[in-house]
Prior knowledge:
This protein has a 5-stranded mixed β-sheet, with helices on both faces. The longest helix has 23 residues, at about 140-165. The protein has helices at about 5-20, 35-40, 60-65, 70-75, 80-95, 140-165, and strands at about 25-30, 50-55, 100-105, 120-125, 130-135. The N and C termini lie far apart (about 35 Å). The chain is built from 6 helices and 5 strands. It is globular. By secondary structure, the chain is α/β, with parallel strands linked by helices.
Amino acid sequence: MPVVASGSAQSAAAVVARAIEQHLTVATAESLTAGMVAAALANTPGASGMLQGGVVAYHNAVKAGVLGVPTELLADVGSVDGGVAAEMASGARRVCGADVGISTTGVAGPEPHDGKAVGTVFIGVATQTGQTSFEYRFSGDRQSIREQSCEAALARLLAALGEVGYRS
């Protein structure tokens, strides 16, 4: 079972409450966090009312084949990129039939990856109005970077749920 920091548990509870209040559903696509975001949400009572599902897309073949990230994009920029994060979030939203998709991709270490430094992380968000991504630079060991990434994804998800508003 993934380790979920207590801050993430509090953030996940806020996300679950807001999603249920807004009558919105969520899906995840995770690379470096490998399911930590979905686990944090699922560990929260009431999550079944908003969490549609998630995809752990650690390998580029899964990012492309399951989530629909363009292979040309992956070939051009690698897996650690804002455009890739945005496409992953959009793919999660589509594949799981959710209102909001959230994704994580980055470098937890110990070595750089795709020319990106350890601690480089991108969080993708996709809603009915479009997709975007946010770049972060975290420090610490591998587990710490993964936990910080999970917390950042939950914070971005909470903000996105507020922006989506009520469904009609």
